[in-house]
C-alpha cells in the first residue's frame, strides 16, 4: 500500500500542475504559475485564479469522490458492478440539481443546488437498497439501477424541455455527460463542504467493510453496527455524488474503473481500497479533464464521453466475467 | 395490437411509395429568384421568425394570414405588437394546411419534414435564407417582395434602409475593442450580422484576433486575456440555464467592471431586417459614451 501511495500522490501533483498550465490562452507554464501565486491583478491572474484553479480543484475533489464512492458501494454491496453513475445515483442527483435550478430555488438560495442534488442521490441510493437489498445479486442491482437511471434521465429531460429558456433543453447532454468547463470558485464553495462531509462518512468505513467480507453475521459478531454502516454508506455516497453532480453533471464510470484497477494492488481488501480509490479517482478525472482540453480544444467535449469510451468496454468485460464465474 | 401493426406497416409502405414520386412532381425550383409571379398570393403563411418580420413589413393589407408564434414573442421579435394582428402558427404542417394558404414562406432552417410535407400536399413554399450580413438585407427584402408580388414596396424599403444605413456610418478615430459573447461561450465573427452591426457602429471585434473570423466557441480564458473594452452579451431568457451562467462568471464580471458595463443584444440583432439599424444606432451611442468618458 505504501509504494502505491508513493506513485499516486506524485502523479496527482503532476496532473494538478498540468491542469493549471494547459489552456486555450496559450501562456507559458512558469508565467502562469507565477501569476497564480504572486497575483499582479492582471488578466492572467484572473484566468489562473477564477478559471483554471477552480477547474483543477473540482477535478481533484469530484474525481476523489467518485473513486471513493465506487469503492465504498462495491465493498458494501460486495458487488463489483456497483458504481454511482451506472446504478442511477448520479442521474438522480442531476435530476435534483435541475429541479432546483429550474424552479428558481437555487437562485433564491445558493446552497439549494447541492442540497437538492444530495436529496436526489439519497432517494436513489435508498431505492436501490430497497430494490436490490444488501445481498441482492448483480442482476437485481443492475436492473434496479437501469430503471432508476432511465427514470431520472427522462424526468431531467422533461424538466429541461418544459423550461421557458431555449438553452435549457440543450443542457440535457451536460447533465448526462458532465463537464468542468468554465466553473468558478463559487461552484467550489458550493460543492466542497458537502463533499468533505461525505469523505468523513466514507473513509472511516475501512474496518467495517473489511469485517463485512466475512459475512453480515460475522461482522455483527465483531461489533460492527450494520444499521449504522448502511446509513453511513447511503449518506456518504449521496453527499459526494450529489455535490459533485450538482456543479459538474453526472460523470460516469470513474467509480467503476478506478477501484477495479487498484483492487489487485491492495490485495483485494476493501479497507485500503477506499483511500487508494479516492486518489486514483482524482488522478483519473484530472487526466480526463486535461484530455478533453488537449483533444478538442475550444469545443467543450464532455467529460462523460471520454470516461464512457474507456469505461464501457471495461464494464462489458466485467459483465462477461461476472456471468462466467458465479459470485 | 396486430391490426394496428398491420395498419402502420401498410401506411409506412404507402408513404415510402408515394414519397419519391410526389417529391419529383414538385421538384420545380421554388426559389424566389425565379420569374416574378403574375398574381399576388392572397393567403400567405410565414413560419419563420425572420420571414415573419419581412412579410409583415411588405405585405399588402389582408395578404398575410399567419405568422409564427416566435413573431409574437417580444423576447425575440422586434415586431411582437404587429404580430398580434395575425393568426399564430407553430410551424406544424397540419395547422398550416388547414389555413389553406396559397403561399408558405419558410426559412432555410425551418423543419425540412414540414416543408416537404406541404410541398407534397401541393402548397407553394418559398424558402428564404437568413441574412448573414448587412448586404444580405436588401436581397432578402427584394426576395420577400417578389414572393408577395410587392416589388414596389420592397424597393421603397431597400432605398430607405440604404439611406438610413449610410447616415449611421461615422468617421471613427479610434475603434474600441469589443467582444460578442453569448450563452455557452459562443462569439460572432466579422462575417456575421452581429459582427457587422458592431463594425458599422465603430467597434473592432476581438473574434478575429482570437482566430475566429466567422465566430464559434470563444474560450472564457481567451476572452479574459483579450481584455476587450466592451463585452456585449445576449439578454438572458427567463428560466435559468447553465449555458447562460457563463455570462455571469467572475472573469466576465471583471471585464464589465473595467469597461462600459453590461451591454446587451436584443431582438433587433436577431434577424436581417431593417430593424438592425436600431441596433447599430444603440451601439453607436454606446461607443460615443465610451469616448466621452
UniProtKB/TrEMBL annotation, chain A:
InterPro entries on file: ABC_BtuC-like, ABC_transptr_permease_BtuC
Keyword terms: Cell membrane, Membrane, Transmembrane, Transmembrane helix, Transport
Top-level taxon in the UniProt lineage: Bacteria
Compartments where located: Cell membrane
Record bears the keyword ATP-binding: no
Pfam families the UniProt entry points to: FecCD (PF01032)
Molecular-function GO term, any one: transmembrane transporter activity
Entry's transmembrane regions: 53-73, 85-105, 111-132, 139-160, 186-206, 233-262, 274-296, 303-320
Gene Ontology biological process terms from the UniProt entry: siderophore-iron import into cell
One GO location term (cellular component): plasma membrane
Membrane topology label: Multi-pass membrane protein
CDD domains the record matches: TM_ABC_iron-siderophores_like (cd06550)
Family annotation (PANTHER family): ABC TRANSPORTER PERMEASE PROTEIN MJ0876-RELATED, FERRIC ENTEROBACTIN TRANSPORT SYSTEM PERMEASE PROTEIN
Record-stated family: Belongs to the binding-protein-dependent transport system permease family. FecCD subfamily.
Protein name from the UniProt record: Iron complex transport system permease protein
Upper taxonomic lineage: Bacteria, Pseudomonadati, Pseudomonadota, Alphaproteobacteria, Rhodobacterales
From TrEMBL, chain B:
UniProt cross-references to Gene3D superfamilies, sorted A to Z: Nitrogenase molybdenum iron protein domain
Domain Fe/B12 periplasmic-binding as annotated: residue spans: 43-293
Keywords: Signal
Keyword DNA-binding annotated: no
Keyword Coiled coil: no
InterPro entries xrefs: ABC_Transporter_SBP, ABC_transptr_periplasmic_BD
PROSITE patterns noted in UniProt: FE_B12_PBP
GO biological process, one term: cellular response to iron ion
PANTHER family, per database record: MOLYBDATE-BINDING PROTEIN MOLA (PTHR30535:SF34), VITAMIN B12-BINDING PROTEIN (PTHR30535)
Protein's name in the database: Iron complex transport system substrate-binding protein
Species this protein is from: Pseudooceanicola nitratireducens
